[in-house]
Amino acid sequence: MTTVRQRRVGKGTEAAEDQPAEEKNGKPDRKTLSDHAGGKLWNVLSTTVGGIVAISLGLLTSVYVATLHENDLWFSNIKEVEREISFRTECGLYYSYYKQMIQAASIHQGLHGLVYDNKTESVRTINILERMNVYQEVFLSILYRILPIQQYLEPVYFYIYTLFGLQAVYVIALYVTSWLLSGTWLSGLLAACWYITNRIDTTRVEFTIPLRENWALPFFAVQIAAITYLLRTHSQPVQERLTLLAVFAATFLFSLTWQFNQFMMLIQALALFILDCFDMLPAAKVTWLYIIQISGLLLVCVLQFFNSMILGSLLLSFNASVLLARTIQKNLKKGGLLNRLGKLFLHVLLVLCLTLLINKFIKKILHLESDEHIFKFLKAKFGFGATRDFDANLYLCEEAFGLLPLNTFSRLSDTLLFCIYIFVLFLMTVAAVIVAFRNLSGSNQVQFVEKMEECTVTLKPDAAYNLIHTVLFGCLALSTMRMKYLWTSHMCVFASFGLCSTEIWKLILKCIHLYTSQRTHAIKYSVTIITLLYISYKFWPGIMDELSELREFYDPDTVELMNWIKSNTPNTAVFAGSMQLLAGVKLCTGRTLTNHPHYEDKNLRERTKQIYQIYAKRAPEEVYRILRSFGTDYVILEDSICYERRHSRGCRLRDLLDIANGHIMDGLGENEPDLKPSLYPRFCEEIKKNLPSYTTHFTRVFQNKTFHVYKLAKHK
C-alpha cells in the first residue's frame, strides 16, 4: 500500500486508535485471545456465506438468461431448422462446426473435416482450426459424444446450456473481484445485482449465444479476479504460484476462444505498462504478467497451426519491447522528479519504436495482411483521412462499430451505477495522481502535498490496476459500441468496490473532519444496503414482468428458403449471397459457400467484395463470370439489401459498392466529383425483369417475399 499523508502535530491519537489491542497492552490476555478466536470464526462464517451467495447469484443469472431465451423464441417448441436460423450471422457459422463434429462418423473424421475443409469456401481447402477460434465447439462436441447424455439432452441444448452456465462463472468472477478489492462480500452482491439489472448493457448472450465474446468474457473476468488477487500485498509464495497458474489458465482460455483476444490483452498490457512506469505495481509481478500473456498467446498460436495473425500481433511485439527496454534501462526508477520524467519519456519512446520495428519486421517476414482491414478502419474512424476502401467502410457504417450512444448512460444511471461509478472514478483518479507524483518525486520532494488539509490517500496495487483497466476499456467502449460489454461489466465491479471501500469513506470523512472507525464502517454498510434495497424495489417488478412475457420465433421466409435448398438442390451445390445469410445456409443445409462472416482473411475479404457485385451496377456477363470463378451454382438475392432503407445514403451496401467501383450513388444527395454514372443498371434490380441478357446466364428457381434464388447456367 502506498500512502501520502500530512505530518501530524501532537500525540497521534488516530494511529493509536487503529492499533490492535496486542500492541497497546504489550501482552495478549485471555480476553484478547477469545476475541481473536471469535474474529477468526466470524471470518470463516462470513466467507462461507459470501461464497454461497456468489454461487447462488451465478446460478440464478444462468437460469435468468436461459429463461429469457426460451421465452423470447419458444425455443423448446420450434422446429430444428427454426432453432438453427435463430443463430444469426456468424453465430450460425460457429455452431455449424459443432453440428458437423456431432454428425461425423467418428471424432477423428470430424477433426479431419475441420482441418481439410472445402465447404466453407468454395474451390478452396482451408483449415478451420487455424483460421477460426472454434476449439470450444470441438471440445463440446467431443464431450457430448463421450458422455451418456444423448438420450436425455439434444445437442443444441447441451451447447446453449454450456454458454448459459458460463454466465454463472462470469458473475461469480465479477463478484469475487469486487469482494477482493473491498474486503466485503456485500460489494460482490452489489456488483452482481448491477450486472443483472443492467443486462441490456452488460451482456447479449441470450440472443447471440455462440458469439465468440460470450465464450471469452467469462474467462477474461476470471483472469481479472486472479490478477487482482495476485497484486494483493500479503500473499504467500505458494498462493502466488497458484494464482499465477490461474492467471495463465484464464489468459489461455480467453485467447483460445476469441479472435480479438490480442487487442483486448494489448490494452491490458498498456495498463500494466502505465502503472509500472509510475512505480505503482510490484515490478516482478508485472514481468510475470507480461510473460504469461506472451506464453498464453504463443500456445494458442501452436494450437491454431501457427496462425500468422497471432504471430504478427501488436501484443507480442509490445510485450517483447517492454521486456527488452527494461533490460536496457536498468536505472529507470532512480533519481529526482525531472530526472525520472526524462527517463520515462525516453523509455516510452524506446518501447514505442521497438514495438513498431518488431511488428513491421514480423509482418514483412510472414507477408501478413490478415488484420490490415482493422487498421484501415481505425485510421478512417479517428479521422486520419477519408477512405473508399470497401472493407473499412463496411465497418464504419455498422452501428455496432460506432460511438457509444448517449442513452446508454441514462440507462446505467437509472440503477445508480453510472453516477456512483463516476464518483468513485474521480476519487480514485485523484488518489492515483497524488501517489504517482509521490513515486516520481521521491520522499524529499513532497512538501507541497503535505500542505494539503489533513487527509490520507491510499492506493493499493490491486485497486490501481482496476482503476487503469476501467479507464482504458472505458475509452475503448466510448469509441466502439460493440466493445461496451468489456467496460460495463467491470463498471459494476469498480462502482461496488468504491461504495464498499473503507479507504474511500475514510478519505471522505477525514477531509470533512468527521472520521471515526465506527462511523466509517456504519456508513459503508448502510449505503450499500440502501443501494441494494433501492435496486430491488425499483427493478424487481420489471424483471418479473420480463420473465412473464412470452414471444415466439417467426421467420417463415427464411424457413421456406432453407427447406427449399435442402429438398431441391444437390449436396454439392455451391451458394453465393450475403455473408450473414450464407452462414445460415451452411448450418441449416450443409451446402458449400462462396463467402462467410468470419472476415479475418484478406483473400476472403477480396472474394466477398467480388461476390457482392450482385448488388452493384455491373453487366450480367461480368457478374456471371465472377460467380462462376468461385464455382457458384446458385445465387441468393435479398430484397432487404437490394432496396435497403436501414442505413442512410452513403452507408447502404449498394452505396459502398458504387463508391468502391467509382460510380455515382442512387438517390438525392451529393457525390464526390470524380464519381461517374455506371454504364449498366443495378444487377439485383434488373435481373428480375427477365431480360434475355440475364436469362442467358441466370434462371430463377425460387422466390418469396424476401429471397430470390437464381441458378447459373453452365456454359462450356
Automatic annotation (TrEMBL):
The keyword Glycosyltransferase applies. Residues 1-34 are annotated as: Disordered. One of its GO terms (cellular component) is nuclear inner membrane. InterPro entries: Dpy-19/Dpy-19-like (IPR018732), Dpy19L3 (IPR047465). It is a multi-pass membrane protein. GO terms for molecular function: mannosyltransferase activity. The gene is Dpy19l3. The chain crosses the membrane at residues 41-66, 215-231, 243-260, 266-284, 296-324, 344-362, 416-437, 463-481, 493-516, 522-540. Residues 1-10 have a biased composition (Basic residues). This is D19L3 mannosyltransferase. Belongs to the dpy-19 family. Keywords: Glycosyltransferase, Membrane, Transferase, Transmembrane, Transmembrane helix. It comes from the Eukaryota. It is found in: Membrane. Residues 21-34 have a biased composition (Basic and acidic residues).
